[in-house]
Amino acid sequence: xxxxxxxxxxxxxxxxxxxxxxxxxxxxxxxxxxxxxxxxxxxxxxxxxxxxxxxxxxxxxxxxxxxxxxxxxxxxxxxxxxxxxxxxxxxxxxxxxxxxxxxxxxxxxxxxxxxxxxxxxxxxxxxxxxxxxxxxxxxxxxxxxxxxxxxxxxxxxxxxxxxxxxxxxxxxxxxxxxxxxxxxxxxxxxxxxxxxxxxxxxxxxxxxxxxxxxxxxxxxxxxxxxxxxxxxxxxxxxxxxxxxxxxxxxxxxxxxxxxxxxxxxxxxxxxxxxxxxxxxxxxxxxxxxxxxxxxxxxxxxxxxxxxxxxxxxxxxxxxxxxxxxxxxxxxxxxxxxxx
Length: 339
Known about the structure:
By secondary structure, the protein is of the alpha/beta class. The protein folds into three domains: about 20-80; about 100-145; about 155-305, Nucleotidyltransferase, domain 5, CATH 3.30.420.10. The protein contains eleven helices and seven strands. The chain has helices at about 1-35, 45-55, 70-85, 100-110, 120-125, 135-140, 150-160, 205-215, 235-240, 260-270, 280-295; strands at about 165-170, 180-185, 190-200, 220-225, 245-250, 320-325, 330-335. It has a five-stranded mixed sheet with strand order 3-2-1-4-5, with helices on both faces. Strands 6-7 form a two-stranded antiparallel sheet. Strand 4, helix 9 and strand 5 form a beta-alpha-beta unit. Helix 2 packs across helix 3 and helix 8 (about 205-215) runs parallel beside helix 9. The chain is elongated. The relative contact order is 0.06. The model is unreliable at about 1-10 (pLDDT under 50).
């Protein structure tokens, strides 16, 4: 009798539980159907609810009309797969990431040094205290054409010490005489190696200036000049005897000899355009004073704001700044007084 009563009580509880679950399922179905859509689409929370109902309620298939039972089973399998994927995820994702500044440094090194490979760059990084593998260096290097080529800047820098440029320019005097100034400039540091003044330049006189500028074995390898008729047979003979190879620019193309043309423009704008020349001696004295300023004090963009004769940087301290007039006061040099 007691067993029958317990069975009846448990059956009543089970029926009440099933009724509550069925009520929940029907309410959820009504909520989905009332959504503002032509064809309501189930969301993840809907799928999760039906998976839970399938576990707790044996008759969960009866009120199911929106989806097929196999669909719910598939949802459960996908959820199980995602759960284990999340549970077995890696706590540490591979090796440490190479910092951005190190990657940029590797790229700059490989671009500036096309002849360097990964072992050489890796060695330089180790000397800088940067610890990483050679494989990482190879990964972030910039790829070059094969075989690698140096830049034009490096090529010209390596050969500039063996190149000089020459040219003439004219200066009128107070009596309207025309004087010719001959310049010889070293392309390496934009330095005027030699200059002279004459009223009637000849091939012999011009050739002698080359000999005077480069005594003994100091002659350069290449000499850049224009096609002026003042460079005659005598000039050719003198230059060839010094084993100098002449490079002639195209006719009416002064931009092909830019360094010396730029120097001539600077001499005119910064000096001769503000002075009336009396004679050749006066012109030599003025040019000598200007070239002293040009070599020792004037900064150049092409030399990274340095002078042809390197000018030391004076550290900032309490010493006052003084000035010295140069080129008759047209320009000034600034310096710190000695302690």
